[in-house]
Structures are given as structure tokens and as C-alpha cells.
Design brief:
mainly alpha
Amino acid sequence: MKSDRREAPTLARDIAAFVLRFLAISIALYVLFYLFAGAYYVRLVALIAGPMLSAFGHSIVLRGVQRIAEDISFNPIVFLSLAAAVGRIPWRPRLRGMAIGTAILVVANAFTVTSVFVASYRKSEAWWTGAEILDLTNNFFLPILLWIALLPLRAAFPMKRRLDGASVSDPASRTDPSSDPQ
């Protein structure tokens, strides 16, 4: 019972440290992106989106991609910040996950750019709706999904389990199993 009480402050401290690292890394990455890497990232996404857009008989306009740069630039920052902020994961699997996740996000952003351009060229409300849904999914869901899927988070957030499978931190699991009336 005493060990449970000692673990709670440690868990709270770990979560607070993660949140602070996440915020610091996010701010640093955003500043780096805004000052240096943003133009190159937009060109990379446009380079990948170009052939996709040509399949619809249109060409990419870099100025148009630059107008939606904010829509396609936050998800790599969020993903990389999440991946870098997690402690207790060795750097090799972390860097591998970061590289794979960033590549997936670049391609996903190229799909977003393609759908925005197709919507614009076709003046189609249906395409605009699809582009907005794709953009929202890429910006809010995909970075977290990739973070969970590509990084060994169990190593970063270890949870002790009792023999019956209940979590030590679960208040309902603190009862004595031998006193169960069943």
C-alpha cells in the first residue's frame, strides 16, 4: 500500500515533465520551422503533390501551396515534439519512429495539398469538404496515432500490473481479491 502512495507523485512528476518538454520542444520546432525550414518543407510537399495533381490534369502552383503552409506544417511539429518529449525510450527506436512518422506526414500533407488544389480547380464543394476533413484528420488525429503506433510507449510509461491483470494505479483494484463475495 505504501508503494502505491510513492508511485503517484512519481507518475505526476513524469507527466508534468513530459508536458513541459513537449511545450518547450514544440515552441523550439515552430520557431525553427518558421525561420528556416518552412520554405523547404512546403517545397518538399509541393514536389510530392505535383505528380498526384497531374493525375487530375492540373499542375501545382507553389504560391498556392505557400498559402496553405500553416495547414500542412503543424502536424510534423506536433508529432516530432511528442516523440522527442517522451523519456525512457532509447534514441535509435525514437529516431526511427520519428523518421517514419515524418515521412508519412509529408505524404499525407501532399494528399491534402492535392485535394485542396483539385477542389479549387473544379470549384467543387464536395472536394472542399473532403479536403477539410482530410486536413483536420492529418493535423489532429494522425500525429497522435503515429506517435502511439511508431514509438515503444510502454517503455516510456511503465505500468505495474498485479497478478490478476489489474493496474496498481487503478483505485478499484486496491481491494483485497480474497474478500470478493463471489
